[in-house]
Design a protein that fits this description.
It is a single chain. The protein contains 4 helices and 5 strands, in the order ββββααβαα. By secondary structure, the protein is α+β, with helices and mostly antiparallel strands. A 5-stranded mixed sheet has the order 1-2-5-3-4.
Length: about 140
């Protein structure tokens, strides 16, 4: 999507109605930071499972701690936001180094998960659930 400079990149990750705008800056020599909506990863995603999902693309490419990552995420639930963050980070890593593409593609991190909530239909209690049938 939008690229800033050679060492700064940005991209967008999506899942359901969650949208994560990811900005990545290369770090030299020191440990990089991860900032989500002005908070740390542990603060924003308190559950360890969600932290793991958000960092999967970095763990797979062995680039954890090499970049300063700033993320603005909005919409959806907390789980969809974690998946949107993973998708956005994977897209930025792919833009930064094309050698990472096969690993990210094989894991399915570059593909947007297109599953959405099915809409409610008229005459039904939900998307597919019917009202109880009464014979008499």
């Amino acid at each position: 999507m939008a690229t800033m400079t050679e060492k700064e990149m940005s991209n967008v990750g999506k899942r359901k109605t969650a949208v994560a705008r990811v900005y990545v800056r290369q770090r030299k020599g020191e440990l990089g930071t991860l900032n989500i909506n002005g908070r740390s990863l542990e603060e924003y995603f308190p559950r360890p499972a969600l932290q793991k999902i958000a960092l999967q693309s970095l763990d797979m490419t062995n680039t954890n701690g090499q970049y300063d990552i700033y993320i603005n995420v909005a919409g959806g639930g907390i789980s969809a936001q974690a998946s949107a963050v993973r998708h956005g980070i994977a897209k930025v890593l792919n833009d930064m180094d094309k050698a990472m593409r096969p690993a990210l593609k094989k894991a399915g991190f570059l593909t947007r998960d297109a599953r959405e909530v099915e809409r409610k239909k008229y005459g039904l209690a939900g998307a597919r659930r019917r009202y109880q049938f009464s014979k008499r």
